[in-house]
Amino acid sequence: MKHSAYIFVISAVAAALLLPGCAKTVVETDNQSAQRYFLSYIKVHYGDQYVMSDYGTCVVKNEEGDGECVDGYDIVFGKYTKYDFDGTITATTYEEKAKQIGTYRKSNFYGSFPLMKSDMYAGIEESMSGMKVGGKRTVLIPKWLMTYNRYATLQEYFDHTSDVDHCIFEIEVTGCTEDITQWELDTLGKYIRAQNFEKVDTVAEGFYLARYETAQDTTVWAADTTFNVNYTGRLLSGAVFDTSIKDTAKVHNLYSPSATYSPKAVVWKPNREEITFGGSTNIITGFNIALSKMRRGETVIAMFTSDFGYKASGSGEAIPPYSPLVFKIEMVK
Description:
Layout: H1 12-18, H2 30-46, E1 51-52, E2 58-63, E3 75-83, E4 89-92, H3 95-101, E5 113-116, H4 122-127, E6 136-141, H5 154-159, E7 167-177, H6 180-195, E8 200-204, E9 207-211, E10 226-235, E11 240-243, H7 246-251, E12 264-267, E13 276-277, H8 285-293, E14 299-304, E15 325-332
Antiparallel strand pairs: 1-2, 2-6, 3-4, 3-5, 3-7, 6-7, 8-9, 9-14, 10-11, 10-12, 10-15, 12-13, 14-15
């Protein structure tokens, strides 16, 4: 591999593992055994063609990007594939690779997504040091860095226990931002302009409502009024992640024989946080606001940033972190 500006650095602990032992029998700890195996694996598979950091991440392939360096940014956009040391893919954000290994689901998200560095494994953050937008790396990450915690010393990383084993990450950096909120607002704004809605109401910063059907009656509901709605939730890419409509679920490979596909009952309350949907008040904020704004006979399109949705956590395999969402909600008889 081309080493570019990288410097070969063998950590003190790694170097110590390569020194001959004394005559006294020493019982290996789990972490010492893991360290020894990690170094042996590198030597067998990559010889001396690697760059090791002070904490133990090991870059074995690097393609320089031509964009900004991500070191000064808290939010990085990227794609990745994760492998076990036996070469098995255990996770990927690439659609074609998911199809190759038989894990592809139409409802899952594939592609580049934003992630805050503090929400990454410590080893991933360290692996991305010095990367530029457009760059790609293959990195071996030891198990002691497969943690969301951050420690001040290498020994503290060694001392913590992890259920995640050593792994290999292929990382591709596609962008970065200093302000994820502004990025979401800009991205959602572009989406709304592309839809050419006749009218869009700005309910709050980051929350927008378009009305497809004119309300038959604009009178505010009385408390405990019940009405029924069908809904479909999408990402800005158009990918459907949830719906109450059977045919829509089938088209988008969401259908489950055990699920009930039918209009959901909404019990309206003057205090929107008390509104129930399908018997529950556990509703994401954006959907709750949309229900509170609906009037008799309406169909609305609610579009909102992740502040009104799933925020930095995302939801399952379908909704990445910091995802603006779109819901079409139709009031039915």
